[in-house]
Request: fold
Amino acid sequence: MDFDVVAHGIVAGSLYALVAVSFNILYRPTNVFNFAQGELVMLGAMIFASATSLAGMPWFAAFVATLVAVGLIGLVEERIAVAPILARSQTGTGWVITTLAVSLIISNLVGRFWGPDPILVKPPEPLSMEALDLGPSRISSYEIMLVIVTIVLVAIVESAYRTLKGKAVMAVAEDREAALLRGIDPGSLRRWSFFLGAAFAAMTGVLAAPILYASTSLGPDLLLKGFAAAAVGSIGNNRGALIAGYLIGVTEALGASLLSPGYQEAVIFIVVLTVLLLRPQGLFGSSTARTV
Amino acid sequence: MPLRAALPLVFQAAAIAIALLLPAFVGANSYALFVATQLGIYVIAAIGLNLLAGYAGQVSLGHAAFVAIGAYSVALLTVDHHWSFWAAAALGMVLAAGLGMLAVLPAFRLNTWYFAFITLAFALVFEKMIVEWRWLTKGFAGVVGVPPPSAFGFEFGPRPLYFTVVLVTVIAFILVRNVVHSRFGCAFVAVRDVEPAALAVGASPQLAKLTAFVISAALAGIAGAFFAVQKTVVTPDDFTADFSIFFLLTVVLGGLGTLWGPIIGALVFFLIPELLAGLQSWRMLIYGGLLLGLMLFAPHGLFGALRQGWRRFAPQAATPVLAAERAEHPPIAGLPLQVSGLRKRFGGVLALDAVDFHAPAGSCCAIVGPNGSGKTTLLNLASGYYVPDAGSVKIGRVEMLGSSAPRIATRGVGRTFQTPRLVADLSALDNVMLGAYTRERANLLSIALRLPSARAEAHRLREEALGFLHFVGVADRAETEAGEIPHGQQRLVEIARAMMGGARLILLDEPAAGLSMSELERLERLIARICELGATIVIVEHHLDLVANIASHVTVLDRGTVLAAGKPAEVFKDERVMRAYMGERALKTGAPA
Reply:
C-alpha cells in the first residue's frame, strides 16, 4: 500500500467529514437533510476566492465575511424553501425537492456570475501547498494543517452540544413537542441551525479551496461524498462522520490508484451501499425506536 | 350519466382520439411526429416516476439512469448482437428494475431522503461507468445506427413507431391506474403519509416501496428502449443529471400523485423549451425556480389546480351510499393474549419491568394507570411496534416476541392509535378496505390487468367494508376523505379497519379520549357488541366509568409495574390504586373515587 495515497485519502476524507458535520448541524434539530449543502460549500469557496484574489481582502476578514454571507443565504433558504413545506406537514418530504431546487438555482447563478473557470486560492501564510519532503509522503504543510483543523473543529462542535443551547438542540431532535412544552422554540432553533449549518459549509469551502480550487463543479461532488460520510458514520454523529470521512477518502484514493480514477465514485457508492445494507443506522449509531 | 362522472371518460376518449389522429395531419418524416413520439416516450417514464414519487413518496433523483439502462440494452443488443428489438426491450426493462433494485434496496429501511440521495448517486456513478466501460458502451462516441423495430418482416417507420409508443403509453397509464386504485395503491399512500397505518394493516413498507420502484424502473426501461430506436444514436450525454431533474419537474409540474399529472406535465413541458429556445442557457435555473415555486404554491401541480377549480365550479353532490343493509356479522373466534415478564427500557427510563398480563379469548380486558405508567408501551410491544428487551408475548399459542408489526397484524391482531392514524387523502371506505390488505388474494398482476376474479374480489371487499362502516355507525361518511372526518368518527373508522382485517384480538389505545358524551355511549355499545361477537379486546383507557362498564378484568400499571389486577369493582377500591391515581392527600381527605 502506498503511504502517499493513504495520506491524500486522509486529506480528502477530512473535507468529506467537514461536509458531513455541516449536514449534521443542520439535520439534528430539523430532520431536514439539505440537498443544497454541496452548493453552499461551493459558494463559500467562490466568495472567499473572489474576496481574497480579486478584492484583495485580508485572509481573516474574507473568512468571516464569507461565513456570514453564506450563513445568511442558508437562512434565506430556510425561510423560502423549508419553513413553508414544514408548516404544511411536519412529516412530509417535500423539502427534498425544494432544497434540490435551491441547489439548482445557486449552482446556475454562481456559474453565470463567476464563469466555469476554476479560481486558484492560496493558503494563508506561512502555510503553502508546496509538497514537503517527508520521506515516503509528498504532503504539503497546508494539508497537514487541514487534517488537524478538522479534528479540532469536530471536537468544538461536539463540545457545543454539551452546552445548554446544544442540549436544546438534542431535545428538539428527540421530541419536538416535549421540547416545545419546555419553552424551546423549534422554529428559532431551525433558523439558527440553517444559519450555522450553512456557515459551516462555507468554512468547508474556504478550507477546501486551496486544494480543490474554487469552481462550480465542487458542489455536486462534495454533496454526495459528504452524504456518504454522514450516512456511513451514522447521521447526527460527528465523530462517526470524521472516521467515516477518512474511510471514504482512503477508499476513494486506493480505488483510484489501484483501478482507475474513473472508478472513484463507483467504489464509494459500493462502500456506502454495503454499510447501509448491513447496518442501516451506519457504523457508529444505534437503532432508535419509532414512537406511535 | 352525471357530468362529474362523465368528464374523465370524455377526456380520456379525447386524448386518445387526438393521439391517434395526429399522424393523419403531419408528414411521416415531419418534426411534429418526431416530437410527438418523443413526448410519448417521456410520458411513459414520467408515469412510472409519478407512481414512485407521487404515490409511494420515494423521490427518485436519478431516473435518467433507469432510462439509460433500457436505451443502452436495446442499442447494444440490436447493433452488436443483432437481437430483435422486442427481446432487447424486455431485457432492458428487467435490467433497469434489477440493477436499480440492487442499488436502492438498502434505502427502503431508512428515511425517504436516503432514497433520493442513493438514486442521485446511482445516476452519477452510472453516467461515469458508461464512459469508463468503453469496451462495452463505446464511451463518449456512443452507439450509432440503432435499427428500427420490426415484426413479421415489416420494418417500423416513424408512423408505426409512433403508434406503438402511443399504445404502450395507454397501456402503462391503464396498468398504473388499476394499481393505484387497488389495495397496493392505497398501501403506497399509507406508507407515504402514515407508516403506522400501513404496519397496522399488515402491509410491509419495504415491500410496498419495492413494488412501486420495480414498476417505475421497468417503465423507465421500456421508455429507454423506445428512446434508443427513435433517436437511433445513444450517447452518455443523453442521460445527464439534468435529464433526471427534467423528469422530476415533469411530474411535479403536472401534479405529484395524480393520474393525469405526468401527461399534463409532459405536454406543457414540451411547449416550454420550444417557447424558450432563446433562453437555453437559463434552462436549469428555470427548472429550479419552477420546482421551488410549484412545491410551494401548487403541490398538486397543474392537475391539482385544475381539479380545485373544477370542484369550485361543480361542487360535489353528496353521493348517497348504496349501502348493503346492516348484515348480522358472523361470530369472531377471539385470540388470547398472554404477556409475561415483559421489560422495555428507553435509554435511562425503565418503561416496563417484568409485566405480566393475560387476556383470555373473547374477554374484554382493560389496562389503566397514570400517564407515563407504560400502558401504550405495553400495546406497542404486543403489536410489534417496539422490540422488547426481555419477556414473552404469546398470541393464541404462538410466541410473537420480536416479530414485525405487519406479521403480528397478519396473525389476527388489529389495533387503533391514541391519535387516529387514518390515511387522510383516502376516503373512509378506502381506509377500511385497506384493513383487508393481507386478506385480499388477487396479486399485483391480476389487479393491474383487472382480471374478472380480481374485480369480483374487490367488489366483494367493498361491500364488506361498507358493512363494517355500518357496524360502527359511520356509513354516511364512506366517501368522505378521512382527513375531513371529525375526530370521534375517525376512531370508529379505525375500529372498522381493524375488524376488516379479520382481527380476532383488538387493541384499543385510549379510544374515549376527546369524545363527547353521546359519542362515548356509542363507543361503549360498539365495544360491547364486538365483544359479544367473540373478539378479544384489550383497552387502554383513562375513562374509568367506561372501563367499569365494559371490562371484565382490569390491570393497573404504575411506573412500569403491575400495581393491581382483578375485577374492576375490586381494583378500583384498592388503596394503592387510589393513591397512584389521586395522590396521598386526596386519599386522606376521602375524596370520592
